[in-house]
Amino acid sequence: MKKILIVLVTSILTGNTIMQFKSPLNQQQNLELTQNKVDVELIKDENENFGKYDSNQNFPAIIKSIVDYFNSVINIRTDFRLTTNTAKVSKDWIKEGVINDFEIILESNFWDIMRHINLDCKFSNFILPKKISYKDTKPGSIDVQIGVKSTLDKEFMWTKTLTYQIILQPVISKNKAEHIVISTRDNKEGFSNGFAYNNQLYFTNVNRLIRFNQQTSEADVVMEIENNFTTNGVLYKEKLYFGAEDGYVYEYNPANNVNNKILKANGIIKSNGIVVANKLYFGADDYKLYQYNAINQEAKVVMTAKGAIRHSGTAFNNKLYFGAEDGRFYIYDPKLEHIETWNYGAVVFDSGVVFNNKIYFIGVIDNIVNCLFRVDLKDDTVKVSTYRNRRNIFSSAIILNNRIFFLVSWVSQSDLVVLYELNQEDHSLNYINSLNYVGPLTRCLNGIIWQNKIHFVHSSNLIKYDLVKNEFEYVKFSGYYFGTCGVILNNKLYFEVILKGILEYNLPTSY
């Protein structure tokens, strides 16, 4: 049965301030579906011509409403800033960053006509940032006015003046803090994130498994297969398990260096594997969920989805919670051999994070609309919130000090990173801080928490976010470009750097 929904577009502003405006929508935003087995539908507004540029639309009035809206945001926000790691910034660089900021603001309430709107900037009172020492800087500033016009207009309509801070991030580069411990000169290119077990690290390297001893700094190949590994590895009863392109799951015993094949799927295994109720589970591209019991060494199929299962999911109270490529969300109870299914038409992008009796999964609807699944573990109900912006890449949920954060980057602008906090009451995303021009090449946004700071890598930078100070700090690695999100062992971080190998970084040296 179809329902008519009235949706408010939510604009993300600083702190906990949320402004809401009614406007025509073509997609859902901040929409919660509380009923099981409900298909998500894209809600079309009655005015289907909205956003189609024609002479009958009153564009002067629309331009004025945009300028008024920008002015209302300027009146509320006091945190307009651009972040750089060089003091040599140009007005062209500033213009690009400012326009990108206001395109994001514009997109939240005027998505349907954005392609007909041009923005420009006027500057005054430009003060450059200054570097005082390797860890201390003085911010610069610039006064800005935003110009708005339609694509057919000749003149811009201008906002009131606002001030942007230009933050020069401290760049820490200590040569003794990092070095390559596994080199591509001796190994193939392409490493997994790695995981720690028994004070040693394990990395898959194309078709090989490499063990790294942190105490001796020695690495050795402990397993080699014909095809390539596809997972990072999972620990089960003191043995390690890895999926591969050939559909096999491989078992490695660190105690005696013996490896075996334990099960064979009819498709690639991309889910990392997870232990639930003392048994090991893998999803595969053949739509099946496989169970392995180490006690009797028996493997079997326990359920078949309607699409590939590429994420392991999350275990809680002896149940498995996961999403599949068929747009469905599943709960599997091994004890009852019972399956619950919700069809949201959304593909889940991660395995989920547990916090305060809920599991949070990120996903996307119809490959364009970002969404967040929330599983209430008290009654196993599933709800979904959707976020209008279509260009985002979300990290998994990052839990710090009983708060939930997401790092977000844009598909069309990979060198911009925004930190949002999830409002746990209405599940809107509140802007916290942003990072501009951190490098366009690689990004891995899933954060690692150490000493109450969020660490993540982007291009050639290790970036730390300090929640207390609400500021980012760079650690610059000249000539390195990160390829994995990293793993931590005994206060040291390990990342793949492209064309180089595995980089070891000693965290205490940078604090």
Distinctive features:
mainly beta, 5-stranded mixed β-sheet, 511 residues, 44 strands, 7% helix
Overview of the molecule:
The chain is mainly β. It has two helices and 44 strands. The chain is globular and about 75 Å long. Residues 1-56 have low confidence and may be disordered. It starts with 8 loop residues before the first strand and ends in a 5-residue tail after the last strand. Strands 3, 4, 7, 8 and 9 form a five-stranded mixed beta sheet that branches. Strands 10-41-40-39-38 form a five-stranded mixed beta sheet, with no helix packed on it. Strands 28, 29, 30, 31 and 32 form a five-stranded antiparallel beta sheet that branches. Helix content is 7%, strand content 47%. Strand 5 and strand 6 form a beta hairpin.
- Low-confidence blocks of residues: 1-56
Report on the biggest sheet: 5 strands, mixed
The DSSP helix count reads 2
Could you say which structural class the secondary elements and strand pairing correspond to?
Answer: mainly beta
User: How many strands in all?
Assistant: 44
Rough shape?
A: globular
Query: Could you tell me how far the N terminus lies from the C terminus, measured between alpha carbons in angstroms?
Result: 58 Å
DSSP helix fraction: under 10%
**Arithmetic mean of pLDDT:** 80
- DSSP strand (E) fraction? over 45%
Rg over CA atoms, rounded to whole Å, is 25 Å
Could you write a compact summary of the structure shown?
With 511 residues, the chain is mainly β. Strands 3, 4, 7, 8 and 9 form a five-stranded mixed β-sheet that branches. Mean pLDDT is 80; it is low at 1-56.
